[in-house]
Specification:
Layout (H helix, E strand, L loop, with lengths): L1 H23 L8 H12 L4 H18 L7
Helix pairs in contact: 1-2, 2-3
């Protein structure tokens, strides 16, 4: 019984974080929206494979976009 409660709690927390992050990601709404979406995916990735794939994809895209290119000499 406790195992089901913990799993349901993780799912609810993950969904709430994703929805709240989606709202905070809208234009003219201040807040760390993308961080909350990533946090929600992290919580859900312990339960669902699709969330784990999305989290990995978003992490790879973030790494690719923020990677510095070496300066040519």
């Amino acid at each position: 019984m406790l195992q089901h409660t913990v799993r349901a709690t993780r799912i609810v927390i993950g969904i709430v974080l994703i929805v709240l992050g989606g709202v905070l990601s809208l234009p003219f709404v201040p807040g760390p929206g993308l961080l909350l979406v990533f946090g929600g995916l992290t919580v859900l990735s312990s339960e669902f494979e699709w969330a784990r794939r999305w989290k990995t994809y978003l992490h790879d895209q973030f790494t690719r976009l923020t990677r510095r290119t070496p300066h040519e000499r």
